[in-house]
């Protein structure tokens, strides 16, 4: 094999090319660097680690911001200026001096001195962590009177209650015939898969403390039979070994035995949960979603967050470290577990369109510190991948990836919790203000990413899989953030001003949904399709985490809307749509039922909107005029919206009911309400209702009722 061009000698007489950024290794040795990425020529020859830190290069720190970032800032400025004008005639809203409140109790107080003022404790606004009779650290808020009680430190083993329950759970599993044992070889195989593919994305287990417990160094404090079973249950979905299947001929049964075993153990351990119980519940919630058991997955996700709050994982425990009650490793394990649980909760909240259990106001736990072992251990793909181990032996950056994943969820979900609230009374201007503010914050964070977390300049440059998925997640956030405002009308004048050429002006003017929010959704959906192609080319989609199903589905909705015949760029939208659908089909191997559900929902939407039984038929849907749509065999999206809410005469399933507009829906539409929009033939009037982010679920329920023979219930709902 020929040596990389980076190490090839320069031709005589040719001046060495200067580069603006040298890698860290060359910079440390004060050597010239050719700037080749991902590995420069000098590092190839020396066999050393090669990394580029763009953020540290001051010559590029003043580079101009991107066009998208400038547009987001301009939109934010316009909204703030409008608010200043509208508030100019109103008196300033200030609290009288008598209403000022001192921030008493703003700090957690775990001191054990006797000179505390009882009244100060009673009026404090923040609770405290406390060690109670089971030996575990628990949290009681200031509303609870138990917050005032300080339990004395006990000499008993704090792990005895959990160990006793573990033994009871194992005995029960054995009695029910659900006890599972595996060989050391299979155990190592599943753990290796977990550390390579699952934990770098859903960073919920601190590997260092887990392995020490796994080796028996601390009595198994951070490695329990329940946690091992949960790890094996989800790792088996990534494996092709038939021994891991309940039915050797059915890949969909991989890990079922471990999952059933873990359910029994979790039932017992929930009585006295520990950190490993929280971690196991998170993994089981994700694993169960692969079976399509969305209700049970949602339940386990909620159990995980409830147990995490019970243990006070959401709180800063630095005072316990200072007092010696917790070690640094224990504190880091708590942080990793909390933020991993936080991300799982947000995944379920966004994927199912339901309230989150982890509001920002309840969190004081800082992000985990950088774990050198996790951060700088070289990540290598499973043998047999598209790239050999030497090419991808770069630092894994698991800790920093997890930090930025949770940070983007915090920014995006705080805004979405407000705009998607069912009882939201926000005006159109307030919704847009929230969206643009969050958009600017997200883009600022995205622009400040360190070089090793950025997208490479070429799709041929290898990219770590969890970093690729992080970028997919970022664009899915933008879609869900801007989606409620996609149908905001834009005047032809503003459309013309936003176009960069006469050709762009005509295409945008022909598009009735040409506004900055639709443009953001289109761009992000196209980026998701592109990144899925890159991921598939470099790794295949066989071992991508289950979160990819929801992220991919978010992009599909945008591409499906853009596949309408009136869109001048529909062929490109159909191309991206096919990419995402192919990806969902690939995901069926690991995440069978959940991916199948998304594919079924897409099929139903295509049938409702375009009367196509298969998405591939969209190519053959002609561009109808408004008067002859029905004669041409095409039902307009407006017609579908007007007839939504039941089953048509021909048995065609229709969309959700649209007869009764809610306040949040009217505010999102911004003018006369949903009925007028439906009468004008606007599909987004019912699809992108901010108060109902998962509209397809209604159709799935109706289909299930019809297939199950409950036609009378359907008829009752239509009366």
Automatic annotation (TrEMBL):
Its name, as the record gives it, is: C6 transcription factor
What keywords appear on the UniProt entry?
A: DNA-binding, Metal-binding, Nucleus, Transcription, Transcription regulation, Zinc
Its subcellular locations are:
Nucleus
Q: Could you tell me which InterPro entries the record lists for this protein? A: Transcr_Regulatory_Elem, XnlR_reg_dom, Zn2-C6_fun-type_DNA-bd_sf, Zn2Cys6_DnaBD
Molecular function (GO) terms for this protein are: DNA binding; DNA-binding transcription factor activity, RNA polymerase II-specific; zinc ion binding
In terms of PROSITE patterns, this protein maps to: ZN2_CY6_FUNGAL_1 (PS00463), ZN2_CY6_FUNGAL_2 (PS50048)
CC annotations in GO: nucleus
Origin: domain of life: Eukaryota
SUPFAM superfamilies reported for this sequence: Zn2/Cys6 DNA-binding domain
GO biological processes: DNA-templated transcription
Residues annotated as transmembrane: none
All copies of the Zn(2)-C6 fungal-type domain together span 22-52
Lineage here is: Eukaryota, Fungi, Dikarya, Ascomycota, Pezizomycotina
